Known about the structure:
Layout: E1 8-12, H1 21-24, E2 26-33, E3 36-43, E4 46-52, H2 57-71, E5 75-84, E6 94-102, E7 123-125, H3 128-144, H4 146-149, H5 152-157, E8 165-172, H6 180-189, E9 193-197, H7 200-210, E10 214-222, H8 232-252
Parallel strand pairs: 1-4, 1-5, 5-10, 6-8, 8-9
Antiparallel strand pairs: 2-3, 3-4, 5-9, 6-7, 6-10
Helix pairs in contact: 2-7, 3-8
Amino acid sequence: MSQQITRLGLVSALREEQSGLIEAMQDTQTVTRGMRDYVTGKLWGIDTVCVLSRIGKVAAAATVATLIERFNVSHIVFTGVAGAVESDVQVGDIVVADSLAQYDMDATPLFPRYEVPLLGQSHFGSDKHLTDRLTEAANQFLSGDLENAIPSQDRDTFRLASPRVFRGLIASGDEFIDSQARQLALKEAFPSLLAVEMEGAAVAQVCFEFGVPFSVIRTISDGANEASAHDFMQFIDSVASRYAFGIVKRMCGMGDCLPEV
């Protein structure tokens, strides 16, 4: 049975991706560790620690390890953006990770390619209960909150006609994918791959090693091709940050977000 959430670690790579969430917290205190501000308090009734990891796998791993060891979080949710790899996944869609892998992990010939040395696996599964709740919250946000959360001008600009929620494999690496050739190579290596980003699989590995339940949710900001950098920051500010705020609020409002032990 799922472990009760006693303290939630809420992590994003960029400040804009967490816009509004820290402001919504009550009884906040800020503790600085490793050049990062960890903000503790209550978020819609849940004891929470919000922090910006910064970009990349090392940054994410260091942040999550600190959340676990210093702040005793019981669960971790990572929000942010990603590039689509699957053709059906479009800008404005949401991908919730069932599993994550590091596409730049290569210790061959000592270990199979993509396998994390000494752990014996290449894919790390997210917590099913937390991921179910996050998926439900994302669907509720798109069906009930999208029009009020995103102004019509921004919906038109980014062609957010009928965004959808996908669930599956996300791959991470210390590389911003902006080449169709690179995208196709990753899809060949991971046929079920939906999206790519730069932190999630590191979060997954750390949580696996510490035995902490986690979930990763990503708003699709681009197609991981030559047009990926176009209006990237505008999308994060106008769309992705509002997705994250609305979805986390929905998740925290669910009674079964806090399961019995």
